[in-house]
Write a structure and sequence with these properties.
The structure holds two protein chains of two kinds. Chain A is mainly α. Chain A has five helices and three strands; from the N terminus they run αααβαββα. Chain A is 57% helix and 11% strand. The chains are: A mainly alpha, B mainly alpha.
Chain lengths: 162, 118
Amino acid sequence: MNKALLPMPIHTAVLLLTWLLLNDFSIGHLLLGSLLAVLIPWLVAPLSDPQAPVRKPGKALVYALIVLWDILRSNIEVAILVMRPNRSLRPALLALPLDIQGDLPQALLASTISLTPGTVSMDFSEDRRWLYIHALHVTDEQALLRSIKERYEAPLKEIFAC
Amino acid sequence: MTLYEWFIAALLVIGGLFTLIGALGMVKLPDLYTRLHAPTKATTMGIGCILLASMLMRLDRNEGFGIQELVISLFLFITAPVSAYMIAKAAMHLRVPLQPGSDPHRLLEKARDQQPPQ
């Protein structure tokens, strides 16, 4: 495949498919979709950084399912916390030591933390070895940090082999 | 009403309830940082339920598979953590105070300067 013409072949395919699914199929939309699917990657390819490749796609799928389940759980947990009186809340700011490195794995970890039980990522330290987390309700800081490391960081580390 | 329609109705009610609780959290939680939790979570769930109901309804009426709903939920899951992160970062730089007692180790100063905790 010609690298100069189609710099991001997977993105091109996904874009065309999405365009056809969002609009009703017709020759006009096929042409317009193809045009956009070639032009957009061509425009944005220079902006993309090289990222760590996914080494274990199967593990990534399992991870996505775990996170989806945890989102469900965390929604119910946060809803209950919100309904309870404010004085029973114990919010806390925590520092999570990071083992994984690389932009994409760390961004995924930070997003996962924001979407799951009672925690929001706040910022990284400059050397990217610490992630600051705000938790809505903490009873045991060490247990929370440990569970994040075991449940999310360890699988991400395996998926990206970093 | 068929059982299927009852199920869709139940999803809409649950979705509405979670969105309401999310909005309520925005009003009643004690500081900006705790208020961040309500819209990033409760609301994602609420909108997820409503979109699922919409997808099931379309399937029932043979109006095809609801790809729009899938795209909406995907964008929601991608943008919610990013916007929460940006708001938290902005709040730290503007020195928005934490609720007393929630930062015993004085990490907020370190987090703002992006320094390691020790």
